[in-house]
Amino acid sequence: xxxxxxxxxxxxxxxxxxxxxxxxxxxxxxxxxxxxxxxxxxxxxxxxxxxxxxxxxxxxxxxxxxxxxxxxxxxxxxxxxxxxxxxxxxxxxxxxxxxxxxxxxxxxxxxxxxxxxxxxxxxxxxxxxxxxxxxxxxxxxxxxxxxxxxxxxxxxxxxxxxxxxxxxxxxxxxxxxxxxxxxxxxxxxxxxxxxxxxxxxxxxxxxxxxxxxxxxxxxxxxxxxxxxxxxxxx
Length: 234
Hints:
The protein is an alpha+beta fold and 234 residues long.
């Protein structure tokens, strides 16, 4: 009797594990599309034009967005990279469990290595999924124009990357689909970097303000503490 019970318990565990793995896979194959007064027919027809109706497993409206589950992870990644045209609206598509994006960086000097760019993005928790691609001038195909792009996965707690990053004193513009204004330090949508609680001021060692707003800074114009001369209102 006991051996039969062990076999049954083992079978139940295997079935539960299989169900959990299937649920995880389906979640990874699911994307979010913000609802702009679309109906199910609009969403399904638009996605069918891109990847085929037979590759759609579910299309459910909840909390002001459509959750679409697809058969293949490649289709989910494709929609996230390209967005979705529904009627006259170009809609941003984001992953449910992960967001895969093509990120472009502009104004990148040639001497800045791909590894430096990857290291900076990985500091945010991104996972690099492809080699960097460098763009060249059409008229001068051997000369870089400062634009590079890469495919990556955003960290699960982030919806966007900042509009700019700094690497070795170089200010680089950053762009991807569905981009929004976030803190350059922690990627939070709740605040900007100058008030980020995780930001550590290099002048006083305190958190919650940048160097330009450090209370220990003395203005050259008025000699008062708390601001630099370019922020002086005296």
